[in-house]
């Protein structure tokens, strides 16, 4: 019996994104095509203002596009109503940003449990998974600390655990180590990469760090509104 062929986690087809400015329409994405397959970790590089964040926001169903299609786990999400887009985003995606955006009044454990609670997971089951994720990232002794009691690298590891909590098909990461010093950045990215692979997720990672980009499966550069594979 042949193995089941899974659809791409993400497929962008002829994606266009433009912004209205005083000088006129500024088109930052000019027909972008991209496929991210299950389990792949893909880097997205390019200078500030090149459109990396716009591409991530479109892929993450956070912004509308002016043309093209966005497919997540085989489903065309381009014209879904808002409620269905929100449900698909919650089911299929996890997000990691440059700044961790942890809730300061919650412990590390409950910050990771929170997305599961929102998804309807029972309290104890959510905390058990949160504890397992934090332990896998070397934070077993920091689970009951609040974010203000953690270092920058520890906070970002909690944010990565939170992004993985609902077992997303795709992680979208925007400069996930950009706020850390070089040594901590390398350490945290190693944990990010291992955790993503261990969980079976794919990832699309925007980064300025070429050393980190070279450690991913494929690297794409945004040039003049289009993607070029390095």
From TrEMBL:
Pfam families: ABC_tran (PF00005). GO terms for cellular component: membrane protein complex; plasma membrane. InterPro entries: AAA+_ATPase (IPR003593), ABC_transporter-like_ATP-bd (IPR003439), ABC_transporter-like_CS (IPR017871), ABC_transpr_LolD-like (IPR015854), MacB-like_ATP-bd (IPR017911), P-loop_NTPase (IPR027417). The keyword ATP-binding applies. Residues 10-230 form the ABC transporter domain. GO terms for biological process: lipoprotein localization to outer membrane; protein localization to outer membrane. The keyword Cell membrane applies. It comes from the Bacteria. Keywords: ATP-binding, Cell inner membrane, Cell membrane, Lipoprotein, Membrane, Nucleotide-binding, Transport. GO terms for molecular function: ATP binding; ATP hydrolysis activity; transmembrane transporter activity. Belongs to the ABC transporter superfamily. Macrolide exporter (TC 3.A.1.122) family. This is Lipoprotein-releasing system ATP-binding protein LolD. The lineage of its organism: Bacteria, Pseudomonadati, Pseudomonadota, Alphaproteobacteria, Caulobacterales. The gene is lolD.
């Amino acid at each position: 019996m042949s193995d089941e062929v899974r659809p791409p986690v993400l497929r962008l087809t002829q994606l266009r994104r433009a912004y209205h400015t005083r000088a006129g329409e500024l088109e930052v994405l000019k027909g972008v095509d991209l496929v991210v397959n299950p389990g792949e970790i893909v880097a997205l590089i390019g200078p500030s203002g090149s459109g990396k964040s716009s591409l991530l926001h479109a892929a993450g169903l956070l912004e509308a596009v002016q043309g093209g299609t966005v497919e997540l786990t085989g489903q065309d999400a381009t014209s879904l109503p808002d409620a269905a887009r929100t449900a698909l985003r919650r089911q299929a995606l996890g997000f990691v940003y440059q700044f961790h955006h942890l809730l300061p009044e919650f412990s590390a454990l409950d910050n990771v449990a929170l997305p599961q609670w929102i998804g309807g997971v029972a309290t104890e089951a959510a905390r058990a998974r949160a504890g397992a994720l934090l332990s896998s990232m070397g934070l077993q002794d920091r689970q009951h600390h609040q974010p203000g009691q953690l270092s920058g690298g520890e906070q970002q590891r909690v944010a990565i655990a939170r992004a993985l909590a609902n077992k997303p098909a795709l992680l979208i990461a925007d400069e996930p180590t950009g706020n850390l010093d070089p040594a901590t950045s390398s350490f945290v990215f190693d944990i990010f990469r291992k955790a993503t692979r261990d969980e079976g997720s794919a990832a699309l990672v925007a980064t300025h760090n070429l050393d980190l980009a070279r450690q991913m499966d494929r690297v794409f550069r945004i040039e003049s509104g289009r993607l070029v594979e390095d």
